[in-house]
Design a protein that fits this description.
Elements lengths: L2 H11 L3 H29 L4 H8 L3 H10 L6 H13 L7 E3 L7 E4 L2 E8 L2 E9 L13 E5 L2 E2 H9 L6 H10 L3 E3 H4 L7 E6 L5 E6 L2 E4 L2 H5 L14 E3 L1 H14 L9 E2 L3 E8 L2 E8 L7 H12 L7 E4 L5 E3 H7 L12 E3 L4 H6 L4 H11 L14 H5 L11 E5 L6 H11 L5 E3 L9 E5 L1 H4 L12 E10 L18 E2 L4 H5 L3 H12 L13
Parallel strand pairs: 14-15, 15-18, 18-19, 19-22
Antiparallel strand pairs: 1-21, 2-7, 2-10, 3-4, 5-6, 5-8, 8-9, 11-16, 12-13, 13-14, 17-21, 20-21
Helix pairs in contact: 2-4, 4-5, 6-7, 11-12, 12-16
Length: 532
Amino acid sequence: MTDYKLDYVVAAMGLTEEQKKQIIEQSIREEREEIVDQALSFIENIYVHLPLKRARNAIDPVQRLKLLKYRLVNMNELKFQQEMIGIFAELRDLHTVYLPPMPYQSINFVLPFAIEECYENNQRFYIVSHVNEDFEHESLKQGVIITHWNGVPIERAIELNGLRNYGNNDVRRNHSLNSMTIRSGSKYLIPDEEWLYISYLTANREHYEHRFQWQTWNLPETQAQTNNQAVPHLKAYGSLAVDFETVKLQKIKKGLFAPITKDSQTSYETDFQWSIRTTSYGEFGYIRIHTFMVYDRQKFIQDLIRVLDQLPRDGLIIDVRDNGGGYIEAGEMILQLFTTNKIQPELFQFINTPTTLKIAPEPWKSSIERSLDTGAVYSMGYPIGGHSYYVDEINQYGKKYFGPVLLITDALCYGTTDIFAAGFQDNAIGPILGTNGNTSGGGANVWEYSDLFHPFGFSPLPRNAQIRMAVRRSIRIGNNSGLPLEDFGVIPDYIHNTTRKDLLNANVDLIEKAASILANMKGIHNLPLEVF
């Protein structure tokens, strides 16, 4: 109930301050009940990974929400929001999240530096990789090694912080590492620490400790929400597969530490960068795709084709690390540019319930109807476009690059980037070099709450709270036919442990490793992966 309505009621009825307080408390309680009821309905009837998450994580989010509804009376606002976030975080699914109301979504907390992991002699270290230009300190500079966090060894501190993060596998630890210095209000609400002490070693092996306080970093409201109101053409049956939290952190990092990359000979496009990298194995093309959140995929593809004409034919490196995903069609359309074979897209399924029968488009709707007789858990699998002409659409340009191609991934590759990596592997385009043991395992099509409440009769959530939900799960094709992508991700063919030189010198060792693999592939590209 808004203040002006409350004032009107108080004036009209002659209510006391105590009665006004009771009305406010009742209104807040009703708002919380509405949020819990809608979350319960969505998870129980729409959430496509519920059977998987119950089995793998030994959890029961449905029961937790039912219990929460009956415990609302004595729960303050912060505790309620923490409990809602905790229930969704327990799913370990970056597609399926609860976002608390404003102002939590727009407020973020930052430190003036970022830390990343690297390896030396097979031992893992955490170093300061970026420092805000306005932060001046005599010893805490780029390259120092972080040893302790509030007196806790840094490895253990990252592990403990990871318990509060969404995601599974290595993605959970990587998100934990990111959020050591950048914390989203939509996930953390407020930091637990009023201040913290960072212990570190300089290049001279001198030990120092410094006290920090969190600083607030506010994104504009339209950027903070990253919902369909900011993407006007997105329909209810949109093809998004994206980790919005990673997208948000990229915006914050860009503001804090831009320019992040130091690549030479780099041309900048809207959604990707390209360059020609000189290595001890020769010159190779390099394309870094930062996002698949492209609103004009035809222009995106045409820009790529123009760049490919300018790159050496001895080999191409496609780097999708840290790419949180975007539009599935954009990712799948790119694959055709690197193979003479016709690209077969990954397939998507709904869970079979009366609610998904109501919201699913064809051809999934007919499959869900048939499940009433068969008792199947999931619908038939179809390409994200649904219609038969989708395969022709993602193959309309054909092969444009005629040298060997290698893909670089990490555990922050999510959503569409997971699907892109799976398609790269399942269509036998080339080998994958990973800086982690798998991609993040974000195998689903995510729908916003706003995709559902207008077309299908659901009410908007109070105070602009938001729910995002994995609605269609991705299953793989080719040699991996039928395997789910969620939680398992894509396992690379080669592993490279990030080095200090990589972090501080434009990924020089990583590119050298990729070049060595490409050099051995000359003349054998577009053969099945078993040949490599």
